[in-house]
Task: inverse folding
């Protein structure tokens, strides 16, 4: 943990159920009170960044409820590390040797390029925010001494999670955003308005397994290698 700076204006209080603010009944529920009074914003944000960074070492399958009622699935495995994101209208597959982006559901057209992190906000062609993108926001917020941070605890998809609501964030596409991270390190929820578009997602199912078939392209996919 970094050394504590001079006291900052960090708001911390018991918060309402996240379900009231994240996708209604599909968002966070069972909210517990958590007081962060007197804790510097960089402590709160940095600690959550460390927690979310654990996601890179996880094997899991996570399903998210998105704004508008759609769902998206993130599946990750290790040895070798690979992650696939499946969302309405497309998918993205990250491996150590390349990144495959697909558009379309019935006969998807896919393009493979050199490896590239999925840090776009949101993921291109979708309303999904990846853990990598959320982590990039947190890391930037940790360097901003004027950020206001409110911490709370909750339960998401049956798993304990730590949440932060951040405002007055400079240097990011979202000047304010909220997110929750499970104890394992998975992204539990995310909310923000970016370029006038409201993004909301909440974890509704989580499994610490990843089916090998999740990383296969559909048989009808047309793949073009641009590496």
Result:
């Amino acid at each position: 943990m970094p050394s504590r700076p001079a006291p900052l204006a960090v708001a911390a209080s018991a918060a309402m159920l996240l379900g009231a603010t994240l996708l209604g009944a599909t968002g966070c529920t069972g909210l517990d009170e958590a007081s962060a009074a007197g804790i510097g914003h960089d402590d709160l944000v940095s600690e959550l960044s460390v927690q979310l960074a654990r996601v890179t070492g996880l094997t899991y399958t996570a399903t998210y409820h998105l704004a508008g009622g759609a769902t998206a699935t993130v599946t990750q495995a290790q040895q070798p590390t690979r992650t696939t994101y499946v969302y309405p209208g497309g998918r993205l597959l990250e491996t150590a040797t390349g990144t495959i982006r697909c558009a379309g559901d019935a006969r998807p057209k896919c393009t493979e390029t050199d490896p590239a992190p999925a840090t776009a906000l949101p993921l291109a062609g979708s309303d999904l925010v990846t853990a990598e993108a959320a982590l990039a926001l947190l890391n930037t917020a940790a360097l901003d001494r004027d950020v206001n941070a409110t911490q709370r605890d909750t339960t998401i998809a049956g798993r304990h999670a730590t949440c932060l609501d951040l405002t007055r964030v400079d240097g990011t596409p979202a000047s304010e955003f909220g997110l929750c991270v499970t104890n394992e390190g998975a992204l539990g929820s995310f909310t923000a308005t970016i370029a006038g578009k409201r993004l909301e997602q909440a974890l509704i199912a989580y499994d610490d397994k990843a089916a090998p078939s999740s990383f296969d392209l559909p048989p009808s996919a047309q793949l073009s290698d641009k590496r």
